[in-house]
Structure formats: structure tokens, C-alpha cells
Design a protein that fits this description.
Number of strands: 30
CATH superfamily of one domain: YVTN repeat-like/Quinoprotein amine dehydrogenase
CATH topology of one domain: Methylamine Dehydrogenase, Chain H
Radius of gyration: 27 Å
Oligomer: single chain
Pfam families: WD40
Keywords: Nucleus, Repeat, WD repeat
Shape: globular
CATH class of one domain: Mainly Beta
Distance between the termini: 33 Å
Main location: nucleus
Protein name: WD40-repeat-containing domain protein
Structural class: mainly beta
Subcellular location: Nucleus
């Protein structure tokens, strides 16, 4: 669905509007503010779509192919523009941000010299985190444009804001974090983009705190001293074998815990503040390769080296895990290169690791049955991600192309005439008794006057947008704190207080990526006379 057409600006703009946050209205020929306002209205119109609740909730065919050299991709999954952008990291170190509606690249970020391993969005989509095999992680500030004269004002900017137009061109790269080994994946904390969790290729998990007084700390398994006592005959080998070697790690969607998979098939739950192990579960007999959560943080999926996909339920109060389903291709023994959930969490997605096939398996999470196998080109699948609000899947092949899968919607011709409906067969029509009666014009006029006098709110945005879940925090008495639920609630409160200390600048929920609307067309610039 395309936005409204906008006529080109051929004269200085004269307008006045309030930005919604600052009390002082923006007046005069402020071209940057006008472009920001137009971008907000156009993007909001494009994103506010009514989805058919009875339509199929999983894709079935390829919609389009985006030429690229990508190795990983992620939709932005929160805010009013959730799913509007697709960030893709390439094998050449470049990061491309695609507009899902127009299928165009709206921003290209250059800062790595080797392949990108993972991409992560901040909670309100202002910051982007890229992890690369060049042993660095880069935090990108998408609110900054390369040319400061083209950076539009947003409702977060004040007249004396430091982000106003300056003579020195700002840089999109906000932070660069260097590690001692290549980075396999990294992600922001759900509540603060100054906290980063990185997994290195040497099986180390590092928690990075970019706030003053923070630093890098290794998240590792700590065994109780009583368990560390070994006989002299066993030596240090038995002592080291009790420690779990971590292979992957992610924050829970609410940010209250760190879930890490080990090479021994264990799943460890860490406290982000103290970096200590809260609990551990044996979920497989092989190394855990990937873990993912649904949007509500109530279901967990992981893939292991035994080529099985396991789904576990997460207790909302204690964080305990309960296994529910195990998906596996018993015939072909399919390895899985990516796993995830649909936007509503009703379906589980698994990207198959065939060498000469591009298949995506979709299972029903409630019943555990296979509902669809998406078959693409004769190219292996590298990564995939599900759209947060629509039945759309983005998958990447080994040559770097991005494939967008969608649902085929039949043409509804009755939509052009709301008073009619399509019929599958002949139906005998029963006329109502008062259907063709002449109505009283006075009553009709009265109803029209009432409808005209009703106030229609077109400025208040729809508040039902995807958001990160919040941890369950409740006041507990001394007696209830001794229970498992009480300890979990107290831990969640401590993590929230720790994460909210010195917050980042990603506070505007309606953040959007500014477009360069003054870009020359065919190498020429029109002065507008």
C-alpha cells in the first residue's frame, strides 16, 4: 500500500505546526521540519493497514527477490513502524537498510572489513548494532545523516538540541567495540542500548556496558566450590569438564535474564547484574546452536547439533522452562540454519540447511504439526526472519539474495462496492418488509446532523503497536520473597533498576529513518523558480 503522492516543492514553504512534544511551534520556512513532517505522515499512512483477521497467517510463495550480498537480516520488531525496515548485513561488510514497502535501499552503512555475523535493532529503532568477523561491533545512530543540512528535525529535538544542524558533518557510527576474537552475534539489551551481549567464535559470551563505570565482563558458568573439589587422581581435567562452554546467548525479551546455550546441550539462565547462574536445564545431548524467543517472551525455541528444533514454554513468573515439542526431519536429517517464531507466536519457523535447496519449514506451535514447507530456488538458505505483524518471511540464500515470502490474497471485487457481496452460488433473496418503504426526510436529516456533529479524532495515533514485554515486578512481603515467584520478581526489579540507570537517547517510540528528499535526480538539481 503506497502513501499519498507529494507534489515537489518549488517555492519557500510557509507553514506553522507544533511538533507534539515541544511547546514552541515550528514556524516559517523551516524546510527540514517540513520534510520531517511529510515523512512522518507518509510513512504512518503506509503502515496503518487493516489486516484481515481471517486471512492465512503464514506465507506460501515468493513475492520478490532483492539483489544483495547479504549474510543476515532482521526486521525492526517494535514501534508504530514495526516491520517497515529490513536491515541486512553483507559478506563485504556493508549494511543495507531496505524499505519493505517500496523495496528500495534507504540507507547504506559502511564500517566493517569482513562479513557481518548478526544485526540487532534497539527498542525504538534509532540504533542498529552490527557484529562482524573482523572482531568488532558497531553501534549506528540512524537519526544522523551524512549531510547535516539534510537532517530533518524530529519531535525529540529542541531549539537548543545538540543534534541541530552544525558545520561539522556528524557520523552515523556512534560506537565501535573491539574484541579479541571474531564476533558471531551480538544484541542490545531490550531496555538500554548501552548494554550489549556479544557471543564470540571462541565460545565466549561477553557483556559490554558502555555507561560510565562499566566495561567488559565475560559471562561464564561458575561451578559451586563443593562441586569443584576433585581427587588428586582426577586432576584438573575433571574440574574443567564440569564447566559449561557457552555457544550462544540472548537476552530475554523483557531483559531480566540471559539465556545461554552450551556445547553440552545445557541451557543456562544468568542474572545480568551479577553474571551468576540462576538455573540450568538439560535440553539436548548435543551442542545448542541457536536460540530465539517469541514476541511476548513466553515461548522459547532452540536448535541443536542433533538436527532437532525444540520448543519450550517459559514461566512468566519464575522463568522456568517446560519442553513442549520437538521438530525433526527424520527422513533427510535436515540441519537448521535459523529458527524463530511468527509475529503472533502461533507458528515456529525453521530454515533448512540443505546445500541445493532453499526450504523454510513452518510448524503449528500449539499442535506441533507441520503446516507448510516453503520451497525456494536451488540455493542453500543462510538466514531468515519473520515479519513482526504480517505473514511475511525474509530469507537469504548463499549467493546473498534476499527472498521475501508472502501470502497470496484473492481479489475481493466486492470491496469496491461495500453494499454488495460475492456469492458462490445462486441465493434466493428474501425482501425485508420495510426495505423499500419511503423514509421520513426529517428523520434522515436528523441522523445526518448527528453524524456530522460527531468529532472524529484523526490525530491520536493507534496505540496498539508491537512493544517489548515488560518483566513481572510486584511488591512482595518478607514471607512471599522466600518463594520462587518472589525471588524471581525481586530479581526482575533489580535488573530493571540496573538497566534503567543512565538510559540511552532512544526514547521516541515513533522514530523513523529520515530520507534524503533533496537528492539530485539524474545528476541535476532544480532550484525551483
Amino acid at each position: 500500500m503506497s502513501g499519498p503522492s507529494i507534489a515537489p516543492l518549488t517555492c519557500p514553504a510557509a507553514f506553522s505546526f507544533s511538533d507534539g512534544i515541544n511547546e514552541d511551534p515550528v514556524t516559517g520556512g523551516d524546510l527540514q521540519s517540513l520534510l520531517a513532517l511529510v515523512s512522518v505522515y507518509e510513512a504512518s499512512t503506509a503502515m496503518q493497514q487493516l489486516l484481515n483477521p481471517f486471512a492465512q497467517k503464514y506465507p506460501e510463495t515468493v513475492d520478490c527477490n532483492l539483489p544483495s550480498q547479504s549474510t543476515c537480516c532482521r526486521f525492526n520488531n517494535s514501534g508504530p513502524f514495526a516491520g517497515h525496515y529490513l536491515a541486512a548485513g553483507g559478506s563485504d561488510g556493508l549494511i543495507e537498510i531496505w524499505d519493505v514497502e517500496t523495496r528500495d535501499i534507504i540507507r547504506t552503512l559502511e564500517g566493517h572489513v569482513k562479513s557481518i555475523g548478526s544485526i540487532c535493532w534497539s527498542r525504538n529503532n534509532r540504533y542498529l548494532l552490527s557484529a562482524s568477523l573482523d572482531s568488532t561491533c558497531v553501534v549506528w545512530d540512524l537519526s544522523i545523516m551524512d549531510n547535516p543540512a539534510l537532517s530533518p528535525r524530529t519531535p525529540l529535538d529542541s531549539p537548543h538540541s545538540s543534534s541541530s544542524v552544525s558545520v561539522i558533518a556528524p557520523s552515523t557510527r556512534s560506537r565501535t567495540i573491539r574484541f579479541d576474537a571474531p564476533v558471531a552475534m551480538a544484541e542490545f539489551h531490550p531496555r538500554n542500548s548501552k548494554i550489549i551481549l556479544a557471543t564470540l567464535t571462541c565460545n565466549e559470551v561477553v557483556l559490554v556496558d558502555l555507561r560510565p563505570g562499566g566495561g567488559m565482563s565475560i559471562v561464564e558458568d561458575a561451578v559451586d566450590e563443593r562441586d569443584m573439589q576433585v581427587d588428586s587422581e582426577q586432576g584438573d581435567s575433571a574440574q574443567e569438564s564440569q564447566r559449561a562452554i557457552l555457544s550462544c546467548a540472548k537476552f530475554s525479551p523483557c531483559g531480566s535474564r540471559i539465556y545461554a546455550g552450551s556445547t553440552q546441550g545445557e541451557l543456562l539462565i544468568f542474572d545480568p547484574v551479577t553474571r551468576t547462574v540462576i538455573n540450568r536445564y538439560k535440553v539436548a545431548n548435543a551442542s545448542i546452536r541457536q536460540i530465539a524467543f517469541d514476541s511476548r517472551g513466553q515461548t522459547f525455541v532452540c536448535s541443536a547439533s542433533d538436527r532437532a528444533v525444540r520448543v519450550l514454554l517459559i514461566s512468566p513468573t519464575t522463568g522456568a522452562l517446560t519442553p513442549t515439542h520437538r521438530f525433526q526431519d527424520l527422513v533427510n536429517r535436515t540441519p537448521w540454519n535459523s529458527v524463530g517464531f511468527s509475529g503472533d507466536g502461533e507458528y515456529v519457523m525453521g530454515g533448512a540447511g540443505y546445500k541445493q535447496a532453499h526450504n523454510v519449514f513452518i510448524w503449528d506451535r500449539a499442535f506441533g504439526n507441520l503446516v507448510k514447507v516453503l520451497e525456494g530456488p536451488k540455493q542453500s538458505l543462510v538466514d531468515s526472519d519473520w515479519h513482526p505483524t504480517r505473514p511475511v518471511i525474509a530469507s537469504i540464500s548463499n549467493v546473498g539474495d534476499i527472498h521475501l515470502w508472502h501470502t497470496v490474497s484473492p481479489d475481493n471485487w466486492a470491496a469496491f462496492a461495500p453494499g454488495f457481496e460475492e456469492l458462490e452460488e445462486n441465493v434466493e433473496y428474501d425482501e425485508r418488509e420495510d426495505e423499500f418503504d419511503i423514509e421520513d426526510e426529517t428523520e434522515v436529516t436528523r441522523r445526518q446532523d448527528l453524524e456530522e456533529d460527531s468529532i472524529i479524532d484523526v490525530f491520536t495515533p493507534d496505540d496498539s503497536v508491537p512493544r517489548r514485554p515488560k518483566p513481572i515486578v510486584q511488591s512482595n512481603t518478607g514471607e512471599s520473597e522466600e518463594t520462587e515467584e518472589g525471588r524471581a520478581a525481586r530479581l526482575a526489579a533489580q535488573v530493571m533498576e540496573w538497566a534503567d540507570r543512565e538510559p540511552d537517547e532512544d526514547t521516541w517510540e515513533g522514530f523513523f529513518i529520515s530520507l534524503n528528499l533533496l537528492e539530485p535526480i539524474n545528476g541535476t538539481v532544480t532550484n525551483g523558480s
